[in-house]
Amino acid sequence: MSALYNPGPRLSDTVTAAPAMKEFASITIHPEVQDGEPVFSGTRIRVETFFDYMRIGVSINEFLNEFPSITRDQAMEVYSLIQSQYTLSQIVAMITGPQSVMTASEGRIVAAA
């Protein structure tokens, strides 16, 4: 009689890697540009501005007329993120990766007054 040995799933089959950082050609984050806020690449126009325009019902064409330095491809890439219901903070996290929330009192627990 031969019994088949089945050890179950291997650890390497069940452990998944952390999600990779994503690169967006249309979005740049640099600490010296707009205080490190996400901007359209090659401009100083914040992605948040685009979010605000879309939120109040401005069309992409109207936005592009207001900001001619932004290309239609850039606007459409960011618009696809809006349609996928990403927030600005989620976009930043996708681009920069997880960030530490440690502050000036790093390494210590500080009670709020």
Task: Give the SSE layout.
Blueprint: H1 11-14, E1 27-28, E2 39-40, H2 47-55, H3 60-66, H4 72-83, H5 88-96
Antiparallel strand pairs: 1-2
Structure description:
With 113 residues, the chain is mainly alpha-helical. 36% of the residues lie in helices and 4% in strands. It is built from 5 helices and 2 strands; from the N terminus they run H-E-E-H-H-H-H. The chain has a two-stranded antiparallel sheet. The longest helix is centred in the last third of the chain and has 12 residues. The chain is globular and about 35 Å long. About 19% of the residues have low confidence.
Provide keyphrases for this structure.
single chain, 113 residues, mainly alpha, two-stranded antiparallel ribbon, 2 strands
Compute the gyration radius: what is it?
A: 22 Å
Instruction: Give the overall average pLDDT.
Output: 77
The order of strands across the largest sheet is 1-2
Strand content: under 5%
Number of discrete helical segments: 5
* SSE-based structural type: mainly alpha
Low-confidence stretches: 11-20, 100-110
Task: State the order of secondary-structure elements, H for helix, E for strand.
Answer: HEEHHHH
